[in-house]
Design a protein that fits this description.
Chain C: This is Sulfite oxidase-like oxidoreductase. The complex is a heterotrimer of chains A (about 80), B (about 240) and C (about 200). Chain B is an alpha/beta fold. Chain B is about 20% helix and about 35% strand. Chain C has helices at about 60-65, 95-100, 180, and strands at about 25, 45-50, 55-60, 70-75, 80-95, 105-110, 115-120, 130-135, 140, 150, 165-170. In chain C, a hairpin with a 4-residue loop joins β4 (about 70-75) and β5 (about 80-95). The mean pLDDT of chain C is about 95. Classes of the chains: A mainly beta (about 80), B alpha/beta (about 240), C mainly beta (about 200).
Chain lengths: ~80, ~240, ~200
């Protein structure tokens, strides 16, 4: 399965954060690299969305939908700088 | 931005054998920047919903947006949008979305646009915005497409060539009298027909994942700063 | 606007009494992955069961193929609500692989090439309930579907059937794996509709 760019998350994340998050900078807890969410690697797995660091491939965060309520595990993001 | 709005189809136009453009009127949309996208949500009678992201081909300040959709053979949403949706129908949209893969008229640096197939859609928005603003920034397009009949917005892209430069690469079938055989974009084609890294262009690449991957790697090999290369890959649903 | 989109029905969603609650029939085989598809060379492939004493029981590809191979016909149920009936697989029963394994632990963590993990109680791997599968529908298992070999635990939601299986570690506790940490149910019985916690 191939990935798409973080751009695709703009809609889902705007519902949660109420602003555009694709230009927010996230620091990977795994390798320390900081990049805009727009360049993260996104796997739309069906079971959930898995967002990985474009540098090391570690999971930054996941989003699953529980009956219309998003559940986000942000444990792979060390720091998030809002745009 | 995060709220779903209702959009009404005001017109559709066949663009290619497998794709068409759809113009929606979305009260309260309020315009968008070139390169942004929109989420479209469809709801079946039993409550089942499907949501997909589509690039927007238009970039003006109005409440009208134009999408261009290519029918994917096993798709769940795109065959509906291409074959079933009719003028007067309503669907839900969310946007404008994304502030990263965008071009604004105040940008003055040279811009290299690279599109694969229906990846041309957000690029068309940029070409339109560039022309509408009378921008003097250098604009160059490299467009990879299967056959001449697969070109989206063909007459408009042709009409705007006074404002931007264009190289088209046909991968399966070329127009009559075309000087080269069909073939994919290679590293050599890229080196020859795009703005060199030394001029520090902003580069926008949009297309299927494999296409974008190959192009982005070559651009970096050709000396482009990865921070100036913006990509938008689309998967296959 | 109307509550629904005129003319839109989405993919066929056939219900059937044979299916667990909330599931629909599918005839294709959707690919769901949380990361890139690892390409594992058969020459380098290895599967192991690792116990609390540090003991490692391992099989290379030839050793796995030399074991008793089962033909398995079964229904599979994905948490994304599709079910596929009467799928056919070939693989080695976990009973065979666990035959020589000594452990006092009751739980396991399955690890995949590519880093995916999922937790499964030991009881759910034994007594003819689980396999290391390497053929689907008479063909070698596609990398997209977990080839060269995946875990197959058809009585649980399909995220438990880890693709690209590399090892099974014995664990003292039922620690959550990848999707379980991210909100999916620790056990995942489709008949109880254990989707989320």
């Amino acid at each position: 399965m191939t990935h798409v760019d973080g751009n695709v998350l703009a809609g889902t994340l705007s519902e949660i954060f109420e602003q555009d998050m694709t230009t927010a900078a996230g620091e990977c807890a795994g390798c320390g690299h900081t990049a805009e969410l727009a360049v993260a690697l996104v796997y739309l797995s069906g079971a959930g969305t898995v967002v990985r660091c474009s540098t090391c491939g570690d999971v930054l965060f996941t989003i699953i939908d529980v009956d219309g309520h998003p559940r986000i595990n942000l444990s792979g993001v060390a720091l998030l700088r809002m745009p | 931005m995060g709220r779903w709005k209702s959009g009404r189809v005001v017109s559709t136009r066949e663009e290619t054998p497998s794709g068409r453009s759809i113009v929606l009127d979305v009260p309260g949309w309020g315009g968008n920047i070139a390169g942004q996208h929109v989420d479209v949500r469809l709801t079946a009678e039993d409550g089942y919903t499907a949501t997909r992201s589509y690039s927007i081909a238009s970039a003006d300040g109005s409440d009208r947006i134009e999408l261009a959709v290519d029918r994917l053979p096993d798709g769940e949403v795109s065959p509906f949008l291409v074959d079933v949706l009719a003028v007067g129908d309503e669907l839900e949209v969310r946007g404008p979305l994304g502030g990263w893969f965008v071009w604004k008229p105040e940008q003055t640096e040279p811009v290299q646009l690279i599109a694969g197939g229906s990846g041309i859609v957000p690029i068309v928005a940029m070409i339109r915005a560039h022309a509408a603003a009378g921008s003097r920034a250098r604009f160059e397009l490299l467009y990879s497409v299967r056959t001449p009949s697969d070109v989206f917005f063909a007459s408009e892209l042709e009409g705007l060539t006074t404002t931007y430069g264009r190289t088209t690469v046909y991968t399966r079938e070329v127009p009559t009298g075309w000087p080269v055989l069909p073939g994919r974009v290679t590293r050599e084609v890229l080196a020859e027909h795009t703005i060199p890294a030394s001029e520090r262009p902003s580069v926008f690449v949009c297309g299927p994942t494999g296409f974008v991957e190959a192009i982005a790697d070559w651009l970096v090999e050709l000396g482009h700063d990865p921070a100036r290369v913006k990509t938008e890959r689309f998967g296959g649903t | 606007m109307a509550g629904f989109t005129r003319g839109f029905s989405g993919r066929q969603r056939e219900e059937s009494p044979e299916l667990p609650p909330g599931q629909f029939l599918t005839h294709d085989f959707p690919v769901l992955s949380a990361g890139p598809t690892p390409r594992v060379d058969l020459d380098e492939w290895e599967f192991s069961i690792n116990t609390e004493t540090g003991e490692k029981h391992s099989w290379d590809w030839a050793a796995l193929q030399a074991l008793a191979i089962d033909d398995v016909s079964t229904d599979i149920h994905c948490v994304t609500r599709w079910s596929k009936l009467g799928t056919s697989w070939r693989g080695v029963s976990l009973d065979t692989l666990f035959a020589e394994v000594e452990t006092s632990y009751d739980y396991t963590m399955a690890h995949s090439y590519g880093g995916y993990t999922t937790n499964v109680p030991l009881d759910d791997l034994l007594d003819g309930k689980a396999w290391i599968a390497f053929e689907f529908d008479g063909e070698p298992l596609d990398p997209e579907h977990g080839g060269p070999a995946r875990l197959l635990i058809p009585h649980l939601y399909f995220w438990k059937s880890a693709k690209w299986i590399r090892s099974i570690e014995m664990t003292a506790d039922d620690d959550p794996g990848f999707w379980e940490q991210n909100g999916y149910h620790i056990y995942g019985d489709p008949w109880q509709e254990q989707r989320y916690w």
